[in-house]
Amino acid sequence: MTDPATHESYPVPDPTIVDPCPATVRNGQCAPDGFTNNHHQQAKPPGQPEPFTTGQEMKITDSVEGEGLLESSMRLKPHEAQSYRKKALWVSWISIVVTLILAVAAFTVSFMRHSASAFGFAFDATLDVLSSVIVLWRYSNAAAVHSAHREYIACVVLGIVFVLSSLCILGKAIHDLATRVPPEVDDFLFSVSIVSGLTCALLAVAKFMLGRVLTSRALITDGFNSLVGAIMGFSILISAEVFKHHTDVWFLDGTIGVLIGLIILAYGVKLLKDMVPRVRQTRNYERFE
Q1: Which of 66, 99, 132, 199 is the most exposed place for a label (fewest CB within 10 A)?
Q2: Which residues of 159-181 are buried (b: 16+ CB within 10 A; e: fewer)?
Q3: Residue 272 has pLDDT above 90, yes or no
Q4: Whose CA is closest to 236, among 210, 257, 215?
Q5: CB contact burial 252-263 (16+ within 10 A = b; e otherwise)
């Protein structure tokens, strides 16, 4: 006789609903718990980005940094990330060439006209060259575009460079104030200040925009340095014009140099304070996916 138990039917699983990794996959990894949505969601066009609430953004940031990835790994598709990476490399190369030329011109003005602001700008332009080189290293590896560890290392190096450069700027400005060295004014000084101010301002905007998209603190820091360069470029023009009409305000140039030096020093210290612990936390997650 046939055993009746063998005729017992079992429910057949529906193959259309078996999906262990729903559309929350990023960089070949499933999203952590809490990212999946068990409710039915309406399909969206491929090119339309998914909106994030504030709570989701915080969860994403904490999760991906804990896995050695930046927040951009959850926001950008692979081809988008590579496109922005190439743009960051182009902006860095342009910044290196332009600021190197401006640094040479500003150093020339500084030593010929005894301008502390010009010296401060020249040093800041040199710092901009170094920071752009660091950004080049940061994005030289296509597979490391979302690497948090590589990002934090770049920020630590930038912080060290900021601190050392600020000490040189402060030393020069304080020396000029102590020896009461007034700046000399001519058309060459005006030309350098205007060109450097406008150029650095444009570079700062481009770096800030790319840094925001790529969630890159290194790019944003590079943009901050270009912004400081723009401010210093225009400060050369302002202090020289004021001294031209009011010779008793000879200290304005050196005072601006001191203020810029202190700002760069404070930013460098803050950067090191924030990034050194993160380098230690992510050193075991050096996975360039």
Answers
A1: 66
A2: bebbbebbebbbebbeebbeeeb
A3: yes
A4: 257
A5: bbbbbbbbbbeb
Radius of gyration of the chain (CA): 26
Please tell me the predicted confidence (pLDDT) of residue 105: 82
Rounded-to-integer distance, Cα 152 and Cα 284, Å: 13
What's the CA gap between 250 and 237, in Å, rounded? 14
CA distances from 110 to 172, 201, 207, 228, 244 (A): 10, 21, 27, 17, 17
pLDDT attached to residue 183:
67
Spatial CB neighbours of 115, under 8 Å, sequence gap ≥ 6: 109, 183, 184, 189, 236, 239, 240, 253
Q: Residue 231 and residue 208: Cα distance in Å, rounded? A: 16
Q: Give 234-267 pLDDT, tens digit per residue.
A: 887 788 778 878 888 888 878 888 998 899 999 9
CA distances to 88, 200, 230, 232 from 99, rounded to whole Å, are 16, 8, 11, 13
Rounded to 5°, the CA angle 269-274-276 comes to 90
- Which residues make Cβ contacts (< 8 Å) with residue 284, sequence separation at least 6? 68
